[in-house]
Amino acid sequence: MSASRTPLAEIAMGSSPRSALSPVILIGTWRLVEMALFAAVGLGTYTVYVQPQIGWQAAYLTLIPLIAFAGTMMLQGFRTYTLSALRRPVMQVPRLVAAWGLTFLIIFAAVFFFRLEGMFSRLFMLVWFTAGSGVTIAGRLSLAALMRNLTRRGLLDRRAVVVGGGEPAVSLLTQLAHMPETDLRITGVFDDRSDDRSSDMVAGYPKLGTVDDLLAYARHARVDLVIFALPVTAEARILHMLRKLWVLPVDIRLAAHTQQLKFRARNYSFVGTVPFFDMADRPMADWDVVQKWLFDKAVGTLMLITLAPVMLVVALSVKLTSRGPVLFRQKRYGFNNDLIEVFKFRSMYVDQADAGAAKLVTKNDPRVTRVGRFIRKASLDELPQLFNVVFKGNLSLVGPRPHALQAKAENRLYDQVVDGYFARHKVKPGITGWAQVNGWRGETDTEEKIQRRVDHDLAYIENWSLGLDLKILLMTPFSLLKSENAY
Questions:
Q1: Which of 38, 67, 220, 324 is the right S-S partner for 350, CB 3.0 to 4.6 Å?
Q2: What DSSP assignment string belongs to 105-162?
Q3: pLDDT tens digits for range 397-406
Q4: How many C-beta neighbours within 10 Å does residue 226 have?
């Protein structure tokens, strides 16, 4: 049974949004918003009740952000910044008021201890506490309404699939079904077994196919989490399936709810009270994605502005020396094997262009124009990919280079040469990458060359940081001086 042909899988694919809002980012953003609201209410109260009498005083302007910060940290300590708490604001009102009130009690105690009585208006404090409580409750009610809307649209769910269709899977799915206020949504079950040990419906969830089908399913539907519901004793079976699934940009967990051997809580991750062993994590998630996005947009825009004169000269050179368009568009593999269209300056004669790159460009290739030979060697033909980074968002400045669909090494497609080749698509591809700055750019005519390139790509993914991205960007101009393999 194939997920690409199964009606149930097709329905799931068609109804599953391709992106979602991270709960971690939502909670973190709301924490900052609430801190700003506290400060705004304090400043407004000061402006209305205090400033007309005594003017602007440094003591108040210091106290306002201090209490705003302390109040937010107190709410954090009272565990009001969790998904379940944000979904049910009415139930949290006593905690909200208690945390906000305790903040003021601590400030009053500090004022008394340091003998600062009379420095701050009691009316100012009372009005700020009252108004702050009201604004907090109103804000939480508004956020809860927004979260309900996002949940209905499937934008606040963590979409999971279960691997395994036996008794452990039934037990797991039954427990998860009784978990209140969880963001986990099971979209289906996959299992390599098709006999009576694994039926077509598992605890009310459809079995959509095998593990191979899961690979295809995850390319079309959004899958955030893969859960193995198998006994630890099935080690060989788990490893066999894990070798197939590790190429996906998802979190992979092993359910530990039926294990007899118990560990400390810190050795598990939890959904509600159900424990899991962490087997693999996606390379970038939550704030890492935000940092990467901001870095790409800010630095990419700066580079686009700075390099605009160079791009103009290259464009004119291409246009004036051979007929045809200035830009060449090529389909390549992007994040999670999605097909993307990248821009390049045209370097070949228009009637000899090879959109699928079925034949790699070689030294003195007659298909390449005179200008094309120069811009390819200097990698100037790649500069229009800044448009992909800044405007389309399907490329990053730094990442594994996106390969053409039919690219081959020794007449074999790359994924046939390198085991786990598609794991390099767990992050967005980039204009430059760790492989390129280490000398593995240009022609990949041998299996060793593509293997070394993929090894460097996977090392980059495993060790990603903004610092590494910046290092690669700074190394790129120097790596272009070594162009013996670039044709």
A1: 324
A2: HHHHHHHHHTT-TTSS-HHHHHHHHHHHHHHHHHHHHHHHHHHHHHHHTTSS-EEEEE
A3: 999 998 877 7
A4: 25
